[in-house]
Amino acid sequence: MSTDSLVEEALAGSPQALARLISLVEDGDPEGQAVLRALHPRAGRADLIGVTGPPGVGKSTLVDAWTASLRRGGKTVGIVAVDPSSPFTGGALLGDRIRMQDHSTDPGVFIRSMATRGHLGGLAPATADVAKVLDAAGYDVIFIETVGTGQAEVDVVGAGDTVVIVLVPGLGDAVQAMKAGIMEIGEAFVVNKADHGDADRTVAEITMLLQLNPDRGDWRPPVVKTVATSARGTDDALAAIEAHRRFLVANGLLERRRRDRRRAEILRVVESKARDRALDLIRRGGRLDELAERVYRGELDPSTAADELLTESAQSPQSAQSPPSDANRQS
User: Fold this and answer.
1) Where is the composition biased (Low complexity) (predicted)?
2) Which helix (H) or strand (E) holds 51?
3) Which residue segment(s) compose the domain that 315 sits in?
4) Residue 206, class by beta-carbon neighbours within 10 Å (0-12 exposed, 13-18 middle, 19+ buried)?
5) 267-289 per-position pLDDT tens digit
6) Which of 63, 163, 283, 326 has its CA 20 to 30 A from that of 313?
């Protein structure tokens, strides 16, 4: 089936076609770029919510409860769950379809597990693109749940309109989160499993830590207690997320945040394409093995060798050739 046909079927509501489009995008397939180009004008309408926190705090259970609440309100939901990678297959080890079985047959919910594939930032490299596909497909709310890697999760701030930090009582998570820099990116805080340990103390700790970082403008991040397994407090937490969106809209910050995201997206693509082109020129130039040997013998340091390769690749006639435009490809 052609890419155009897949796009048409996905926009008409086919989950199978949507899954195939996401696979093309996630795998870095050349057709995936065509998919993103076709869908880009339709994206930018969904609420993007990043959910992060240490392992075992109940992020998936919370997202499950929020999804149920949103569906009762008539909204459609996309879930991008970023899981650790299998060292053998590169695929996701944890299956969020297993953890969210209640929604597996709901046509208004689409769940996609993605692998980090060794990426250190908590988000899989194609996460933003997958969220864009779901956005263009018409889902009202998209949750981006990151792998619980702790200190590396700060990059979720660039993926969502609202970032939710999930913690639990009794494990010193608040202090650890402060050390990791996570406290600075949260726009709403959830203390889950509030029926265990001293939840009130954890709320007080988070509130105190937030007061030590007052440079947040007029928004004061709420701290909400929940017991996600019984959906206790989960609607209050969802209300806090929705309040943050209203705040962004009222102050013109949502558009600014999304413009910043597009700017970062352009830079990410430039970085990726420039790296690929430079490495291709370097490999074809045949100098890499020679310089590696000189570095091994101590005649050069790695930085100087890299500078030589970059200088040579920049001076190569092939580096000045721009790739054919889409119009040229079609002519």
Assistant:
1) 313-331
2) strand 47-52
3) 259-330
4) buried
5) 888 888 888 888 888 888 788 88
6) 326
